[in-house]
Every structure is written in C-alpha cells, then in structure tokens.
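User: I'm new to structure prediction. If I give you an amino acid sequence, what do you actually give back? Let's try with this one:
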Amino acid sequence: MVLFGASGHCKSVIDIAESVNNSISVIVDDDPKTKDIFGIPVKKFNSEIDFENEKWIISIGNNKIRKTLSAKLKVAFGTLVHKTAYVSNRSSIGQGTVVVANTVINAAVKIGAHCIINSAAVIEHDCVLDNFVHISPNASLAGEVCIREGSHIGIGACVLQGITIGKWATIGAGAVVTKDVPDFAVVVGIPAKVIKYSK
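Assistant: Good question. You get back a string of structure tokens that encode the predicted 3D arrangement of the chain. For your 199 residues, that looks like this:
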C-alpha cells in the first residue's frame, strides 16, 4: 500500500496495516519533514510517482484535506481495519476509510469513503456516516445516528439515538448530543449547544 501524508495520523495507519499483515511500500507527502517513518521511506509527492498497482490511503486527519486529495489523486484507494476492531459482517465501509484499534461497528452500519473511525469508538446499529467523517477516540454513536459529510465527532462525545449531525459540523470533546445539529455548527457541553458556525 501507499500512504499520502507523513503525519501523526500516518503512524496510526501504519499500525493498522501491520496488524493485518499489509505492507506499506512508501509514504508520500507534499512537504516531507522526515526521510522515513518506522523505517518506511517518505518521498515528496509528484505526478511522476507511479504506484498504479497499489492501494492508497490518505493518512491525514484533516477532513477537508482528505476530501481535496481524494478528488486530486487518480489512484485506487484501499480500506484498513485494525485486527482488534469488531465490524459486523452486516455493515459496510467505503474506500479510503480506516478503522483504528478496539472500535466496535455493529449491525447495518453504513460508513462512507475516507472516514476515520478512531480508537475505541462505538458505532451502534443502523448508523449512517457520510464521506470524510472523523469519529474521535472513545466517542459513541447510539443506534440510527446519521453523520453528514465532513463532520468531526470529538473525543469522548456521545450522540443519542436517532440524531442527525449536519455536514461539516464539529462536536466538542465530551459533548452529549441530544438533538439534531445544523450544518457547519460547532457544539459543546452537556447537553450540547451551538456556540458558533464555521465554513
């Protein structure tokens, strides 16, 4: 596989790949700050790089950057699920998505492309996550939650059953979301309340 992005998140993606015996041949980056990560070479990205026969993962935590790069890169994207994650065989995961260690993804969940499901997150039955969503460590989604494109659920946040989180919203760390969240809203607290909007 090939990773795009020599960041901290890249290190987690390497761990996921190694847990399921997938080898990373190279990491590419627009502006490399290091020559290697865990012994894997890091190279400056350019259009001449030819890894047509390999699957790619965008190993960058920023949702907007993942969206931009996914449109720019004309490559085949893979999917990575850590060996300690539980994923129901009645659920689906889109291309480019990574599922980190000790997560739980239960029945009838639909996860889009280029998402990050981070360490020990819980996604209950019938949830729908659109593309470029990031669920942070220890966040929990109850059943039938819908997360629209590009939204970020903060570390330890909880979203109650049947809630819809609008696109490109941000849910603060430890928030408890008890009602629907509008597009681009930033919400914090218990219960979560809108404090601003960002675009």
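You can read the tokens as a compact description of the fold. Here is one thing that stands out. Residues 72 and 147 are 24 Å apart (CA to CA).
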